[in-house]
Write a structure and sequence with these properties.
By secondary structure, this protein is of the alpha/beta class. The mean pLDDT is 95.
Length: 180
């Protein structure tokens, strides 16, 4: 049986994280309502909340970010409209990587083998020059290799090697990416 009461009583967040989540919720409208071209403003705001943000990072204002202090955005990466960065655990997006509109990176899950279903905060790593296409889902603990392409609406629950193209649900390899 599932022990819902034990799950709800578990301490998933430190006091500091709880306060930071409240402050982020209060600051988020300044992120969300900023003009599209205000890349620098959003980079600055994310940094104020503990994100590591490189130069020329483009994060669109409609991106939903749960815990920016768990984000590393490397130089030149882009996160498109309506993407979800559910950063309960660390999410690292490599240099020049693209996270397209509506993609969902989910760095949190629950241990289904235990009755109290404790929260697991598993990291996601998107390597440099990778592309996560529109509305793709990347699950907890997944690493996407350099130059890999994840097709639109693909569901990736296992790590992906370098230079591969995956599509579908569950995602399967359909090709290899060429290096220029």
């Amino acid at each position: 049986m599932i022990d819902v009461a034990a799950n709800r009583l578990a301490h998933k967040w430190s006091r500091r994280e709880q306060v930071a989540r409240i402050l982020w919720a209060l600051a988020y409208p300044a992120f969300r309502l900023s003009p599209r071209i205000r890349w620098g403003w959003r980079r600055w705001l994310l940094c104020r909340f503990g994100a590591t943000v490189g130069a020329q990072v483009h994060v669109y204002p409609s991106v939903r970010i749960t815990m920016p202090w768990n984000l590393t955005l490397s130089p030149g990466c882009a996160v498109g409209d309506r993407a979800i960065l559910y950063a309960l655990g660390p999410i690292s997006i490599g240099a020049r990587a693209t996270i397209s509109q509506g993609a969902h990176l989910c760095a949190g899950t629950h241990d289904h083998t235990r009755a109290d279903r404790p929260l697991l905060k598993r990291p996601i790593t998107i390597a440099p020059d990778s592309w996560i296409a529109a509305e793709a889902f990347i699950g907890p603990g997944v690493e996407i290799g350099p130059r890999s392409i994840i097709g639109a609406r693909a569901v990736v629950m296992k790590s992906v090697g370098p230079g591969l193209i995956l599509a579908g649900n569950p995602a399967c390899q359909i090709g290899t990416a060429t290096e220029e």
